[in-house]
Design goal:
It is found in: Cytoplasm. This is tRNA (guanine-N(1)-)-methyltransferase. Its main location: cytoplasm. Keywords: Cytoplasm, Methyltransferase, S-adenosyl-L-methionine, Transferase, tRNA processing. InterPro entries: Alpha/beta_knot_MTases, tRNA_m1G_MeTrfase_C_sf, tRNA_m1G_MeTrfase_TrmD, tRNA_m1G_MTases_N, tRNA_MeTrfase_TRMD/TRM10. The chain has seven helices and ten strands. The chain is of the alpha/beta class and 241 residues long. It has two domains: 152 residues, 3-Layer(aba) Sandwich (Alpha/beta knot), CATH 3.40.1280; 69 residues, Trp Operon Repressor, Chain A (Orthogonal Bundle), CATH 1.10.1270. The chain has a five-stranded parallel sheet, with helices on both faces. Strands 3-4-7 form a three-stranded mixed sheet. A two-stranded antiparallel ribbon has the order 9-10. Helix 3 crosses helix 5 and helix 6 packs across helix 7.
């Protein structure tokens, strides 16, 4: 069974976008995964196809209505659909490579793209939406975030990457940032490829790559190392079965 993605959006023309190209595009064409873009306005009840209203309690902007969104969600994911319901939101839990792998191992995802000031909290609660963030910044809508999430997931689906081992040493896969890469020419503007990488000694190459990964992670993302230490401490202190 292929991975099924349903995206609920006010701008279905944004999909597949970049997902129709390169690895994701070839996999989409081959049926490894499928993509359905659902126009939220199709579930509006007035002739203007209104999907938002003023915020309760006052304030700037508009809020997406719970009743309209509920209809769109129920259409895309009828009762019994096993796919997780996601809402792209700056207040959501940060998307991690571990969560990406979980999604890639599942049947797909239903992704709601918010707009305006946000989404009525009641539909989030009533439909059990999982709020997901791709970073500590604000976008004009959830569509670019949905594209990012799907790109991260689709590349991990079986057969999408030519060599399934290609992702094993990438950043975040082992809790570290990825080591530096080099290729020909052997010297570029006075900068040679490190000798160890052309030594043919695979043990030394592996050790060098790990050392570089640790160094980069310490410099740029020390929080990742703290997370590794906490995980290791938890395992060490876990009671024996």
């Amino acid at each position: 069974m292929s991975f099924r993605a349903s995206v609920l959006t006010l701008y279905p023309e944004m999909f597949p976008g970049a997902l129709g190209l390169s690895l994701a595009g070839r996999a989409l064409e081959a049926g490894v995964w499928s993509l359905e873009a659902v126009q939220i306005r199709d579930f509006a009840t007035d002739r203007h196809r209104t999907v938002d209203d003023t915020p309760a309690g006052g304030g700037a902007g508009m809020v997406m209505r719970a009743d309209i969104l509920a209809k769109a969600i129920d259409h895309a994911a009828p009762q019994g659909d096993p796919r997780p319901l996601l809402l792209m939101s700056p207040r959501g839990r940060p998307l991690t490579q571990a969560r990406v792998r979980e999604l890639a191992a599942g049947p797909g995802a239903v992704i709601l793209c918010g707009r305006f000031e946000g989404v009525d909290q009641r539909v989030i609660e009533a439909r059990g939406l999982e709020e997901v963030s791709i970073g500590d910044f604000i976008l004009s809508g959830g569509e670019p975030a949905a594209l990012v999430l799907l790109d991260a997931v689709v590349r991990l689906l079986p057969g999408v990457m030519g060599n399934d081992a290609s992702g094993d040493e990438e950043s975040f896969e082992n809790g570290l940032l990825e080591h530096p890469h080099y290729t020909r020419p052997q010297e570029f503007e006075g900068r040679p490829i490190p000798d160890v990488l052309i030594s043919g000694n695979h043990a030394k190459i592996a050790a060098w790559r790990r050392e570089q990964a640790l160094k980069l992670t310490q410099e740029r993302r020390p929080d990742l190392l703290s997370g590794r230490e906490q995980a290791a401490s938890g395992k060490k202190n876990a009671p024996e079965a």
